[in-house]
Structure formats: structure tokens, C-alpha cells
Design goal:
ELO_fam, EC 2.3.1.199, Elongation of very long chain fatty acids protein, fatty acid elongase activity, fatty acid metabolism
Length: about 100
């Protein structure tokens, strides 16, 4: 689903806002699940369960997913939650209208 979304974005198709938000939420979920799976693998290994994943792999995978989560969260907040600042072009257009 996400690659189809990115393909349409690359082709300059207008994507509805609700779909953009949904894809970003799915990405955040994917990164959260990745962190959780690594946490559980760590806990299993700590409890002596058989797990073929090394501690280094768990650590670096967790770091990767956590960083991606942070990046997607930042993107979500900037793109969908923050108000857009007024640009200089808009300010200049308003001044011209008021004259």
C-alpha cells in the first residue's frame, strides 16, 4: 500500500489528506511494532528462551526502528498538526491588496 502511495505521489497525483495521514499513521505503527518485537526478543533472551537473534542485532534494529519512529512522528506533527506559517509572499500580496 505504501509503495503504491509513493508511486502516485512521484507521478504528481493529488492524494487526499485523509489518505496521507493514514499512510503516515501506518508507518508510525510499523515502527512501533518493530520496536516492540525487538524488545520482546530481548526479554525472551534474558529469560533464557531460545532465540537465534544476537543482542547486537536486537540493539541496532531497535535503534533503527526508534529513529525511524522519531522521524515519522516529527513529519506527522509538522505536516498534519502544526499550523502553516504565513509566508512572505502572502504578506506582500496582502499589503498590495490593502493599498
Amino acid at each position: 500500500m505504501m509503495y503504491t502511495y509513493y508511486a502516485f505521489r512521484a507521478m504528481k497525483y493529488r492524494i487526499p489528506k485523509w489518505m496521507q495521514v493514514t499512510v503516515t499513521v501506518f508507518q508510525l505503527s510499523q515502527m512501533g511494532v518493530g520496536c516492540f518485537v525487538n524488545y520482546k526478543a530481548y526479554v525472551y533472551k534474558q529469560n533464557g528462551a531460545s532465540c537465534a537473534v544476537t543482542y547486537a542485532n536486537i540493539f541496532w534494529s531497535f535503534v533503527m526502528y526508534a529513529i525511524y519512529f522519531g522521524l515519522f512522528l516529527h513529519f506527522f506533527c509538522v505536516s498534519y498538526l502544526s499550523k502553516k506559517p504565513v509566508t512572505k509572499v502572502n504578506d506582500e500580496n496582502e499589503r498590495k491588496k490593502n493599498k
